[in-house]
Design goal:
This protein is α+β, with helices and mostly antiparallel strands. The chain has two domains: 3-174, PurM-like, N-terminal domain (60s Ribosomal Protein L30, Chain: A, 2-Layer Sandwich), CATH 3.30.1330.10; 190-360, PurM-like C-terminal domain (Phosphoribosyl-aminoimidazole Synthetase, Chain A, domain 2, Alpha-Beta Complex). It is 38% helix and 21% strand. The strands form three sheets. Strands 8-10-7-11-9-12 form a six-stranded mixed β-sheet. Strand 1 (35-37) and strand 2 (46-47) form a beta hairpin. The longest helix has 22 residues, at 221-242. The structure holds adenosine-5'-triphosphate, thiamin phosphate and magnesium ion. Substrate binds at residues 67, 325, 370.
Length: 373
């Protein structure tokens, strides 16, 4: 039997690492002058920071059935042919998403990613090829603009009942820079965002409501009609969920343009804007018309999922206001600053009106964002 057809349990740790290095070594060699010792070389990696830079560090875990489901990629084709990725996309997507959410946090500080450490917990029954595909997904995330210097510096392998991935990202920020900070939004600032809102949440609803471990239901003629007209949108939403591509250049660009407050939206606009407001001691007023307009584009997804028109509008707004995971970048810019390319105004920062920092909006949505516990 070709060893590639074996499971990670049959192959053992050394063979899995050999498989990993076949992808990682040439990847690092292409970009890693700053990586003196990389994966497999010693007890830890040696990384040379650019002179005059500060280190930026973050970590994030993604676990099966908390953050993704294998059946999203291998389930029955309820969403009509074409919308689902082929099943072998699953490991690549998990690698891309796990890396992307860490790269996004580095960018959201205004910094540039330079290295990732990757801990992979796997059931013994996972195919060896799963691991190689997972790393191809990580490489894909690092090939996005803004991550050109990011290498894979090392990691760890372990056994568990379900797949779990923990990635730690390292980045660099010029010495002396305060970075893009949650505590730096000031009254008078424009609140702007780079990247779409609500699509990953809409994609999650499509994936969760249209397929599932037990199968799912057949498509009605109305759904087929909506699918035919909006196939591209549905695909974009599902990919925003399974394979997010955060705007990694947006953080450094915001900082360079004079932006000061900022964070990425991982848990939803309302929840994350409230964090920004709290840390900065300000009120954040959202532009309800702009957000309602953005939500309108997602109404066909809600309609496809069976929501009647009024509910579809509300559902789409809930995705825009409460959905995270596609890692749009929220930034605040002093009045007079020209917003960098890709940013659009969605509100403003004001003095807090009554002692408690708040997000002010006229929209009432039932879901205020994601809590991981
Ligand atoms: N187990 C922990 N130990 C120490 N600090 C933690 C722990 N979990 C979270 N934090 C800190 O709390 C803050 C918020 O963490 P969180 O993971 O929510 O980050 P985030 O950027 O808001 O969200 P996301 O991880 O979805 O991007 C970060 O500064 C993080 O370092
Ligand atoms: C199966 C499944 N159920 C729910 C979700 C939704 N979800 C998971 S993590 C997260 C926010 C960011 O997390 P963190 O703050 O941990 O980075 C969201 C909105 C999903 N993706 N998959
Ligand atoms: Mg974040």
């Amino acid at each position: 039997m070709d060893h590639r057809e074996s499971t990670v349990g049959q192959a053992g740790e050394d063979a899995v690492l050999t498989e990993v290095m076949e992808i990682v070594a040439p990847f690092n060699a292409r970009r890693g002058a700053h990586l003196l010792l990389g994966p497999g070389a010693d007890d830890a990696a040696l990384l040379v920071p650019r002179p005059g830079s500060q280190l930026v560090l973050t970590t994030d875990t993604m676990s099966q059935d908390q953050d993704f489901r294998p059946c999203w990629w291998s389930g029955p084709e309820q969403l009509a042919a074409g919308a689902f990725e082929p099943p072998d996309e699953y490991p690549m997507e998990v690698g891309t998403k796990a890396a992307a959410q860490n790269l996004s946090d580095i960018s959201a500080m205004g910094a540039q990613p330079t290295a990732l450490l990757i801990s992979l917990t796997l059931p013994r029954t996972m195919p060896l090829t799963w691991v190689a595909d997972f790393y191809r997904g990580v490489v894909r995330a690092c090939e996005q603009p803004g991550a050109q210097r990011c290498v894979i510096a090392g990691g760890d392998l372990g056994r568990g009942d379900v797949v779990s991935v923990t990635i730690t990202a390292v980045g660099e920020l010029a010495a002396g820079s305060a970075g893009l900070r949650r505590d730096a939004a000031a009254p008078g600032d424009t609140l702007a965002v780079c990247g779409p809102l609500g699509r990953a949440a809409a994609g999650l609803a499509l994936l969760e409501e249209s397929s599932g471990p037990e199968g799912g239901t057949a498509i009605s003629p109305q759904q087929q009609e909506l699918f035919t007209h909006h196939e591209e949108l549905f695909g974009v939403c599902m990919r925003a969920q399974t394979r997010p591509a955060p705007p990694l250049e947006a953080g450094p660009a915001a900082l360079a343009a004079g932006g000061r407050g900022g964070m990425d939206i991982s848990d939803g606009l309302l929840r994350d804007a409230a964090r920004l407001a709290r840390a900065s001691g300000v009120d954040i007023h959202l532009d309800d018309d702009v957000l309602a307009e953005e939500a309108r584009t997602l109404e066909p997804v809600a309609a496809y999922l069976g929501r009647p028109p009024e509910q579809a509008r509300h559902q789409a707004l809930t995705w825009v206001m409460g959905g995270g995971e596609e890692y749009a970048l929220l930034g605040t810019f002093p009045a007079g600053v020209v917003l960098p390319e890709g940013f659009r105004r969605i509100g403003e920062v004001r003095e807090k009106a009554d002692g408690v920092p708040r997000v002010v909006t006229g929209h009432v949505v039932s879901n205020v964002g994601w809590s991981s516990l």
